[in-house]
């Protein structure tokens, strides 16, 4: 590792050249391109000041290629700060271990929460599907009920029409019976009247026979008239 503060040599030909740069963190006190310094990357251009934020390298300042595009960057790396002490590296490593463990715990909790959410979503979808089926069944039941009500209404109308026809028939039968009774009463009355008139005529006939008998006794000159009267009486 090369320390810039010690004025060490360039990292072109020593262990500071690496194929992969560490992760970095923004630092406003140490940022931008170091135009005023002599450090140059493999492109022979001024280097970019950066601060490492990875494992035990956390906090180390270094120079690296200033190219913006990743595919254009070279692997130049020059450390500025001296290496941390063993105790400091241990503490930083422990902090990163705690950080990684916390991240793993969060990931595990998130996975568990995701599984629970997945179950909840599945249960929700199942309930939504059951609700959809229930709505369809309910709509079908309502449709069947409306159809049954319509059929019941038609049946009631038919029953009402039938009752009306029966009432009309009853009235017609009653009227026919009344007419029959009236005609029968009239016929009986006419019969009684004829019987009465017959009886009266019989009485009149008897009276005429008595008169004729008296007349025949009193005067034989009335024979022709008497015969005619007798013929008239015999016709009854």
TrEMBL record:
GO terms for molecular function: zinc ion binding. Residues 41-83 form the GRF-type domain. Residues 145-218 form a coiled coil. It comes from the Eukaryota. This is GRF-type domain-containing protein. The keyword Coiled coil applies. InterPro entries: Znf_GRF (IPR010666). Keywords: Coiled coil, Metal-binding, Zinc, Zinc-finger.
């Amino acid at each position: 590792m090369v320390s810039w503060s010690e004025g060490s040599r360039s990292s072109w030909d020593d262990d500071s050249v690496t194929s992969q740069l560490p992760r970095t963190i923004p630092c406003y006190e140490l940022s931008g391109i170091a135009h005023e310094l002599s450090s140059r990357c493999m492109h022979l251009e001024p280097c970019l000041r950066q601060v490492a934020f990875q494992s035990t390298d956390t906090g180390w300042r270094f120079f690296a290629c200033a190219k913006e595009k990743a595919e254009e960057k070279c692997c130049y790396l020059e450390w500025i700060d001296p290496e941390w002490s063993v105790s400091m590296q241990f503490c930083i490593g422990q902090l990163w271990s705690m950080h990684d463990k916390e991240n793993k715990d969060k990931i595990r909790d998130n996975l568990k929460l995701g599984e629970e959410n997945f179950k909840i979503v599945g249960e929700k979808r199942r309930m939504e599907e059951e609700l959809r089926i229930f709505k369809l069944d309910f709509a079908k039941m309502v449709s069947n009920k409306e159809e049954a009500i319509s059929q019941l209404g038609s049946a009631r109308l038919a029953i009402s029409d039938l009752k009306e026809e029966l009432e009309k028939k009853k009235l017609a039968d009653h009227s026919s019976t009344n007419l029959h009774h009236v005609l029968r009463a009239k016929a009986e009355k006419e019969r009684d009247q004829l019987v009465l008139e017959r009886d009266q005529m019989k009485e009149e006939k008897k009276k005429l026979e008595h008169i004729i008998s008296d007349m025949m006794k009193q005067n034989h000159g009335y024979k022709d008239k008497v015969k005619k009267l007798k013929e008239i009486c015999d016709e009854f």
